[in-house]
Input
Amino acid sequence: MRSNMKKMVLLLCIPALLAAPLSGCGKNEGSGDDSNLLVVYNYGEYLDPEVIDLFEEETGYKVLYDVYETNEIMYPKVAANPSQYDVICPSDYMVTRMAEEGLIAELDMEALPNAKKYIGQEYWKMSESFDPGNRYSVPYLWGTVGIMYNRSMVDEEVRSWDILWDPKYYDNILMQDSMRDLFAVALKKLGYSLNTTDLKELQEAKELLIEQKPLVQAYVVDEVRDKMIAGESALGVIYSGEAEYSRWENEDLAYCIPEEGTNVWIDSWVMTKESRHKKAALEWIDFLCRPEIALMNFEFIYYSTPNTGAMDLMEEELLENDVLFPDLSKYKLEPLQYLGKEAERMYYNLWKEIKSA
Amino acid sequence: MTKTRRISGFLGLPFVFWAAAFIIIPLLMVVWYGLTDENGALTFANIAAIAQPAHAKALLLALLLSLLATAVCFLLAYPLCMFLVEAQKTSNSFLTMLLIVPMWMNFLLRTYAWQSILEKTGIINTFLTAIGLQPLRLINTNGAIVLGMVYNFLPFMVLPIYNVLEDIDKNVINAARDLGANGRQTFLKVIFPLSLPGVISGITMVFIPALTTFVVSSLLGGGKILLIGNVIEQEFMVAYDWNLGSGLSLVLLLFIIINVVVSVISERGEEELRRRKSDAEA
Output
């Protein structure tokens, strides 16, 4: 979900970031009456804007809506000023980290009847891997990481990560250019957890990825989608949400969740501990769990929804779409967990060895 | 006298402020981060880290590719400049304009354009397959990166060389010919030595951005080729290790300083030589 472009823009912003603390002019907080305010911080393009209007109309709250590109951009902003936002939509591993660091509050599930009623049991269970006891987060949208392939270039059936190591596909493989996503592929192929911190397992994965490197056309992020649509490559590792879009654009494309298992990601709503509008925050989270609202957001974003109420409102045909709604019992899915600074550094150093190999 | 000096001193103020805010202070911060660890204690580990195989390899590759790009730029630019100076006599500056106009376009856009030229389904390969030839593997190679560097930085080589060539007094060349030097001798003994300052500043202006680039290598290298610029960028953006990123930047800075010092010394040497010559003549 990150792109090099964004990184570059960011890098250009560093001087500005450096200057910010020097200027020392924090916004004057608490000016005026903001008791009916709700400050929402979400991924860009990750909510039907009409939903905000509906919420404001119904509840009378005024929503201040702000967006970010990645967890890594969101986190420092929230950490620096924890009371600035009321509700945020981080990904799995970031929920753990924010909970550990005391940035987010435990949710009163009694205040979230729609969440209790409509979010499917299996998704709550999946969430437990990063939010034990489902105390802090309510699942919003989710998806998998898998192999997208072009049927006009790949004759065989794609079932396993092994195909990404087949010399037949020299220069026809696109891999993810983000550390954890890249390692996840090799670790799963080897049968390890994608959250391993065992150096020996990681070394093995590294060797495997170095071995694969000559076959790889490029390590990219957002470009996987465009390159697959353009027919630049036969195989590519991609997020399921992007896969669905790609299939609309190029009907030769197909998506597969490899049998060794893969990463499942869940973006969830959380409430900040320092929130000054906790009641509104809970109302917002519950509002988004209403079947009609969840359906609106699903139709706007086209990522998989965990909302069973929304699924009941969908056409049968859509539910049979195994990219959006794979049979969870069939696959070994594992969410990414936050591994702590030291382990991240270990991953990063090994990643550098792959990239410079 | 003192009054005008005071006024011109004031005129320089905005730049002094600019340089302090956006050059000196950031540089000092890089030095500070580079020489400390995350707890703020003094360390040289961030600089010594250049010896790690991944970093050393990235630095060597960056040196190699940027030297290659500089050499190609020089070989392309010098004849071009001689041609441009000749053409200047007959036509107006239209040709020089042609060279400069692409620079008005955004650097990123131009590099993205090369992606769609070099790609597997790109313009070159579509053409090759259309006429029955095998497609070539162009993008995501070292060659593509050198091409990107040459394309983007060529004007920085052309302009200084063009300026010195244009400034050469035509009488000097005529005198050489008059005294019996043939074309080759005139070039080697008169024109080229006189153009050296332009060549040196051209080399500096191409070599430094090529050595430090991370944009060209990530757009045309497909993330497969890690230059030292990419390593530093990722230390900041992916690993959040500003200390290591700054330490490696300091190492890179060393190479830049060496380059600048060499070019300043050789320019001084040129001047010195010229002065001595004219003294001797007098």
Observations:
- Chain A has a mean pLDDT of 89.
